[in-house]
Amino acid sequence: MTLHGKTALVTGSTSGIGLAIAKALAAAGCDVALTGLGDAAQISAMAQDLSNEHKIRASFIPANLVHPAEIRSMVAAAEHQLGALQILVNNAGIQYVAPLRQFPDDQWDQIVAVNLSAAFHATKACLPAMQRAGWGRVINISSAHGLVGSPGKSAYVAAKHGLIGLTKVTALDNASFGITANAICPGWVRTPLVEAQMQARAAANSISLREAEQQIIGEKQAIMAFTAPEQIAALALFLCSDSASTVTGAAMSMDGGWVAQ
């Protein structure tokens, strides 16, 4: 599959799932704008490596996704540097765990802002160029928690459920423009966020990291294995292909059987 001539923006693309998606898009010939947390010089070097390896254009555009104005500026900068965006991957996400009664108000606001509202603002900013082109792909990285709940994750679960709703409306509002919108719902993926959860459980229960890993996976998934970020990226790449031109408004689980139970 080739995406030569296409341009993508991937949020939260400096590590984990987002970086894997950015690499897959670049390997398919797509120009890519990266944005996310980390050392700016290192991320810029990462973008240059992608450019050199795949003979595409890549750039790093920092933005605080809590602020709508910075999101609009991020999209404008990506279009200025790389051209009109045809692919948007809303991947950025943060997490905080606490019982609802003790859940901090500021954590709720930040999680909803980054995990849900940022996707709305980025999509809204990208749609004019996609509509003019008559082609576009919006891919929202939701979660198994966009379909089911878990204790202590009120903000994350609410935001990920909301992201699936946003996906459906984006698909319906843009069906006549050649634009599709879909959500990918991963289960356990080995990312820095999940590594931190495993380390915390191992320390709290005085068990090995391997035991903590097996406990966490076994509580939710029938398949006792992590999904690799590269597997999520392969599904995202399929959704960008012509073969997926009528796949829209879908919430696609890739969760080892989590929500089948």
Give me some keywords for this one.
48% helix, single chain, Rossmann fold, 13% strand
CATH topology of the largest domain: Rossmann fold
Which sequence of strands runs across the widest sheet?
Answer: 3-2-1-4-5-6-7
Structural class: alpha/beta
CATH architecture of the largest domain: 3-Layer(aba) Sandwich
- Biggest β-sheet, characterized? 7 strands, parallel
Approximate strand percentage: 5-15%
Mean pLDDT: 96
Low-confidence stretches: none
The CATH class assignment of the largest domain is Alpha Beta
- DSSP strand tally: 7
Helix content: 40-55%
CATH homology superfamily of the largest domain: NAD(P)-binding Rossmann-like Domain
SSE pattern? EHEHEHEHEHEHHHE
Structural shape: globular
Q: What's the structural domain tally? A: 2
Number of separate helices: 8
Please compute the radius of gyration using only Cα atoms. Answer: 18 Å
Distance between the termini: 34 Å
Give the arrangement of secondary structure elements.
Blueprint: E1 7-11, H1 16-27, E2 31-35, H2 40-54, E3 58-60, H3 68-82, E4 87-90, H4 105-133, E5 136-141, H5 154-173, E6 179-186, H6 192-205, H7 209-218, H8 229-239, E7 251-254
Parallel strand pairs: 1-2, 1-4, 2-3, 4-5, 5-6, 6-7
Helix pairs in contact: 1-8, 3-4, 4-5, 6-7
